[in-house]
Amino acid sequence: MSTAAMDDEDGSSSSEEEEEVKKEIRKEHYSSTHKILLVGEGDFSFSLCLARAFGSARNIVATTVDTHQELAKKYSNAIENLIELQQRGCVVVCGVDATTMSHHFFLTTQRFHRIVYNFPHVGFAFPEDNGCQILLNKELVIGFFMNAKVLLKKENGEVHVTHKIGEPYDKWDLVKEAEKIGLVFCKAKPFFKNKYSGYAQKRAHGRAPDEPFNVGESKTFMFRLSG
């Protein structure tokens, strides 16, 4: 794990960080005043897009299930992006499983305003529309929701999942599964990749993990804690 300065839960911060808060910068659904957890990052290009927009990554924790060695092998730009993120103050954590992340020794001490998982997918064991494949992907998302719920700030916290819509993706039942575990659906906003300069969505699995996939028609689904 690579770390940089990160606010603790009581909101204490340095004078430099306080100055950044005063100068809020927004990028779509995200703010430089949000403490943001990014889950399942591929080559870290989405994290870096936010960091560059904000001018800093001190409010960002970026995680990946891959090890440092796996990142270097799978993605042509991952290590370069990771280094820039760290230089901008980001906490980068490798080897984080989205379905168990609330038990991670670092993350368990943190709470976040936004927890973001873009295009979750387990990889292809079966064709995309196969019932077994859909079930595997649903299990991944359910595990993520359960862990994100633990790490979310109670006030103004939101869990975001960007996901393709239409068949067979609607069968993942994101809203229904989230509500089962105590998350309330807020809204879904269309996802436009061109609004996130530099973001390069990656296949992550198979023989060509560094190749892009077609995001097609996608939305960012937003949830909050119930009650």
Short description:
The chain has 227 residues and is α/β, with parallel strands linked by helices.
Structural summary, described in words:
The protein is of the alpha/beta class and about 230 residues long. The protein has a single domain, classed as Vaccinia Virus protein VP39 (Rossmann fold, 3-Layer(aba) Sandwich), CATH 3.40.50. Helices cover about 30% and strands about 20% of the residues. The chain has a 7-stranded mixed β-sheet, sandwiched between helices. A hairpin with a 2-residue loop joins β1 and β2. α2 runs parallel beside α4. The N and C termini lie far apart (about 35 Å).
Total of domains = 1
In CATH, the architecture is: 3-Layer(aba) Sandwich
Q: Main sheet, how many strands, which sense, barrel? A: 7 strands, mixed
Q: What integer is the average pLDDT?
A: 92
CATH C-level label: Alpha Beta
Fourth-tier CATH superfamily name: Vaccinia Virus protein VP39
- Counting H and I runs of at least 4 residues, what is the number of helices? 6
Which sequence of strands runs across the widest sheet? 5-4-3-6-7-9-8
Q: H/E element string?
A: HEEEHEHHEEHEHEE
List keywords for this structure.
rRNA (uridine-N3-)-methyltransferase activity, seven-stranded mixed beta sheet, 9 strands, Rossmann fold, alpha/beta, 227 residues, 6 helices
